[in-house]
Amino acid sequence: MLEHAISLALTGETFLPLPRAVLSGNVATEAARPSGQILDRLTDRQRDVFQLLLAGHSNKEIARELGVLEGTVKVHVRAIMQKLGVRNRTQVAVVAARSGCFPEDA
């Protein structure tokens, strides 16, 4: 695994080790839902946060972009995670990827 990580780093790619549960699909049942159904469960502001989250922005960057406090972003991120049935940002990204939610330019 280390050899693979180094080779990816040398080619400019990103290596992101994921927990077995994420790789095996045991993260959340929401992963099987089409992206529209996942997005339909989020409020408009949560969708804004969700898109910036998928683009890899930090809470501080999201707050600046949306003109809100960082604490507000944290509340939205927590609500998104709860609605998707995941526990961290990586799992949000995995569920989004499996559901086709990633922005086209990502």
Assembly annotation: single chain
Mean pLDDT, nearest integer?
A: 78
Terminal residue distance: 25 Å
Can you count the beta strands? 0
Helix content: 55-70%
Question: What is the CA-based Rg, rounded?
Answer: 15 Å
Main beta-sheet strand count, sense and barrel state: none
Strand percent estimate: under 5%
Low-pLDDT runs: 28-34
Class by alpha and beta content: mainly alpha
Count every helix, treating DSSP H or I runs of 4 or more residues as helices. 7
Q: What is the N-to-C order of secondary-structure elements (H for helix, E for strand)?
A: HHHHHHH
| Gross geometry | globular
Protein described:
- It contains 7 helices and no strands.
- It is an all-alpha fold and 106 residues long.
- The protein is globular and about 40 Å long.
